[in-house]
Amino acid sequence: MPVATPAAVRSQIASGQVDPVYLLQGEDEVEKSALAHEFEALVEEGLRAFNVERVHAIDVSSGEKMMQAVLSLSAVVRTLPMMVPRRVVLVLQADGLLAPKRESDAAERAWEELERLLTRPEPQTALVFVSGPLDKRSKVFKQFSKHATMVECGAIENLADAERWVRNRVAAAGSQIEPQGARLLAERAGPDVKRLRNDTDRLLLYALGQKSVTMADVKEVVGPAALQDDWAMTNAIEAGDSATALRQLALMLDSGAAAEKILGQLGWLVRSKFPMITPGTLRGSIEALFRTDLDLKRSAGDPRVLLERLVVELCGGRRGRPGGRF
After folding, report:
1. What is the DSSP-derived secondary structure letter of residue 26?
2. Long-range contacts of 160-165, Cβ-Cβ distance < 8 Å, separation of 24 or more
3. Torsions phi, psi of 320, nearest 5?
4. What angle do CA 259, 261, 266 make, to 5 degrees?
5. Which long-range CB contacts under 8 A does 287-295 form with residues at least 24 apart?
6. Is residue 23 within 8 Å of residue 127, measured between CB atoms?
């Protein structure tokens, strides 16, 4: 069965054409909960009480309890929809069913019954399991991979994903965020989920008790834009574009990159590229690298200023030549 992104699953829900079985997994509890809730849109709001079931699989500490839970789930899944084309069954906190703590004959029989739900799904029911990450080597994971649509929650693929993630996280905290604020937060963090989570958590702490998070609140909390391309600075130096190279250097420093790491990247550029593209300035470039390295080690100046000077020197010999060639 296919591996789908949360965005692709949302498109399926909007079209009303969903697969029979889904597994929503990953570390991002907010995203999993929000996506599972969106499956309810498959059923008209006034009829959801009859056709949307939420099964909590948290208390399955023994094989016998697991068997009871699976049999109950099977009965719910096989129930026919009432006045709608499809029912929705959400199995929340499904880790206990899918990754039991103890193996036993009862647990094995329970898994065989659960496997029947996967291999012979009910066509009039959308069955959605919500779980933490599963061991990819396990039999359970392999069976789900074969018979269910796998959805990894928490992956940020584009700006729309990041904005949605921010809105869901703020809503889960009992507040709302202005659309332009969510967009700014997403733009500044880029595809970095860790930074997005940290920035959003700091924002929620800053706006604690507020019903609405404003654009002004976001500007007070978030830092500069995230670096989107680790090699943008060196590419700009190759092109002799000192303005772009300095902007990219600032992004790297502001995002927490160590001065020594940046110097190492510049050293690689000079050693690997300059002998071919600018042999006439190779000697001077190497001397500038050694001087900057020595100044950083003896704290002879602000690291930002020292690196900016080096970047300007490396760009200097490239400026004014068509295509950056000598």
Report:
1. S
2. 160/7, 161/6, 161/7, 162/186, 162/189, 162/190, 162/191, 162/196, 165/28, 165/30, 165/31, 165/193, 165/196, 165/200
3. 90, 5
4. 95
5. 288/313, 288/314, 289/263, 292/263, 293/263
6. no
Tell me if the pTM is above 0.70.
no
The H-assigned helical ranges of the chain are: 6-15, 29-38, 48-51, 63-78, 95-98, 105-119, 139-147, 159-172, 179-189, 193-206, 215-221, 232-238, 242-254, 259-272, 274-277, 282-297, 303-316
Lowest mean pLDDT among 67-71, 106-110, 271-275: 106-110
3-state secondary structure of 225: coil
Among residues 23, 174, 11, 7, which one has the least CA distance to residue 95? 23
Alpha helix segments (H runs only) across 173-302: 179-189, 193-206, 215-221, 232-238, 242-254, 259-272, 274-277, 282-297
Q: Smallest Cα–Cα separation from 186: which of 202, 163, 203, 168? A: 163
The answer to whether the beta carbons of residues 154 and 28 sit under 8 Å apart is yes
Q: Taking 60 as the threshold, does the pLDDT of residue 319 lie above it? A: no
Question: Is 292 strand, coil or helix?
Answer: helix
Cα 160 to the chain's mean position, in Å? 12
Backbone φ and ψ of 277, nearest 5°:
-95, -20
3-class DSSP assignment, residue 55: strand
- At residue 101, φ and ψ (nearest 5 deg) are -70, -30
Return d(Cα 310, Cα 203) in angstroms, integer.
Answer: 36
Strand ranges of the sheet holding 125-131, from the earlier edge strand across to the other edge: 3-4, 149-152, 21-25, 125-131, 87-92, 52-56
Question: pLDDT tens-digit profile of 31-61?
Answer: 888 899 999 999 999 999 999 999 988 767 6
Q: Which residue has the tokens 């994971």?
A: 141
